[in-house]
Amino acid sequence: MAHRLRIGILYVLSAAMLTVLIGCAGIDPDAAKSLGTAGQGAAQAIYDQANASAATLTELPALIVVRDDLLCTATTNHVTGRAAGATLSNCLNNLIDPKTKLPALQAEEGKQATALASIVQKRANAASQLEAAYTSYVALATYDAGAQATAAMSSAFASINELSKTISVAYPPASVASVITPTITSTTSGIVGFVAYEGQRALLLSASHDLGTATNALLTDLNAEAEYATGIMEVLAAERSTVYGAYIQAGLVSAPQVLQAALSDVAPGVTTISNPPVANAPAIASAAQHYVMMQTQQKIAAISQSYQAAVAALKAVVIQQQQLASKSPLDIQSIWIQVQELQALTKLAKAS
Amino acid sequence: MSTSDERFEEVKTNYVNALLSERDDISRATSAGDVSKIQVNVAQAAVAFYETAADRLSAQSASAEQAYKAAVTANEAVVRARQTAMAIAQLIGLLTQATNAANSLVKQATV
C-alpha cells in the first residue's frame, strides 16, 4: 500500500515538474494541444480536398469522341425543330476520324491528367502524414510520446519531400519546397542521459519547430500545385459538362429529369411530371442545357476557391505556429474558420 | 511584357469558349463542312491547351509578346462576334483564327 502511495506521489510530482519545465521553455502544453488539434483538423480538410480533386482527374478522350457523335444531333435546331442545313447524317459522315483525333488528345491530355493525379495522390498522403504528426504532437504535450512523435515527424517529412519531388518533375518551373529534414531525431539522440523531464521539454520544442517546417513546406507545395492544377481541372470540368450536355442534346438523358434537380433546390419534395406538353419540349431541353452550364460554372469556381481555401487553412496554421514559437498569444479560432470554409467548398466541389 | 499566367489564360480561354459553344455553333451550321470546321477547331484548341499545361509559356521575346497580343485580339473578336450573333460562316473564320493565334502563342512562348 505504502509502495503504491509512493508511486502515486512520484507520478503526481513528475507530472507537475513536467508542466513547470515545459512552461519554462515557453511552450504552454494547453496551447500546444489546441494548436495540435487545429493542425489535425486543417490537415484532415486538406486531405479531403485532395481526394475530391482526384475524382476530377479522369481522362476524357474516349468520351470526347462519343460527344462528337452525339453533338451531330444538334444539327436539328432545338428551337425551331428543323434541320439547319447540316443534317445529322452528313454530320456523322464528316466527323473527324477518331484514329486521327485521339492520339494527339490522348498524348497531351492523358499526360497532364496522369501527372496531376500523381501529385494530388502524393499531397493526400502528405496531408495524412502531417495529420498524424499533429496527433503525435498533441500526445507529446499530454504524456511521454517521444517515440510516436519522432516516427510521425519522420514520415511526414518524407511524404512532403516526395510531393515536392513529384511536382518539380511534372512542372520544372514550379517553386516547390526545398528538401526538409526533421530535427526531433537528433534532439532525442542528444539528450541521452538527461532527466526525463528535460528530454520531454526538448522534444516538445523540437516537435514544434519541425511541425512549423513541415507545414510551411506543404504550404509551398500546395501553392505550386494550385498554380498548375486549377487551370487543368477547370478545363476537365468543362469537358465533362459538354459530354453530359451532348447526352441531353441527343435525348439519351431526360431533360425533365435534369430539371428535377433544379426544382429540388427551390421546392424540396415537389416532382416534375413525366410527360410535359410536347410543344414545350424545345424550351425544356434548352433549360436543361442552361442548368448544366450553370452547374459547370459553379463547379469551375469551386475548384479554384477550394485551392485558395486549402492554402488559407495552411497559412493560418503556419501563422499560429509562429505565434507559439515567439510565445505570443494564439488565435486558434482563425484556423478553425479557414478549415470550415475549406470543408464547405470541398463539399460543393463534390456535389456539383 | 505579359506574364506566363496571362498567356496560359488566353490559350485556355480559346479552348473553353470553343468547347462550351460547340453545341450551339453546330446547331447554326449550314453545311457538313461547317460542322467539320467547328469540330476540328475544338480538337486543335484542346491540343494547344494541353501542350501549354506543363510549360506555362514563360519564354520572353518580342515574337512571344506579339503572339500573345494576337491571341488576346483574336479571343476578343470571338466574344464580340457571339454578342452580335454574327453569321456562322464568319464566326467559324474567327474561331479558326483564334485557335491559330493560340497555337502560335504556344510555339513562340514555349521554353
Structure write-up:
The complex is a heterodimer of chains A (352) and B (111). Chain A is mostly helical. Chain A has eleven helices and no strands. Chain A has helices spanning 2-24, 29-54, 61-71, 88-93, 98-142, 146-170, 184-190, 196-249, 255-266, 281-325, 332-351. With 111 residues, chain B is an all-alpha fold. Chain B has one domain (4-109). In chain B, 81% of the residues lie in helices and 0% in strands. Chain B is elongated and about 40 Å long. Classes of the chains: A mainly alpha (352), B mainly alpha (111). The interface between A and B is large, with 47 and 37 residues.
Average pLDDT figure of chain B: 92
| Rg estimate of chain A, integer Å | 28 Å
Average pLDDT for all residues of chain A: 83
C-alpha end-to-end distance of chain A: 65 Å
Please, how many helices of chain B?
4
Shape of chain B: elongated
Task: Detail the topology: elements first, then pairings.
The complex is a heterodimer of chains A (352) and B (111).
Chain A: H1 2-24, H2 29-54, H3 61-71, H4 88-93, H5 98-142, H6 146-170, H7 184-190, H8 196-249, H9 255-266, H10 281-325, H11 332-351
Helix pairs in contact in A: 1-8, 2-5, 2-10, 2-11, 3-8, 5-6, 5-8, 6-8, 8-10, 9-10, 10-11
Chain B: H1 4-28, H2 32-52, H3 62-83, H4 88-109
Q: What does this entry show, briefly?
A:
With 352 residues, chain A is an all-alpha fold. Helix content of chain A is 78%, strand content 0%. In chain A, helix 5 packs antiparallel against helix 8 and helix 6 (146-170) packs parallel to helix 8 (196-249).
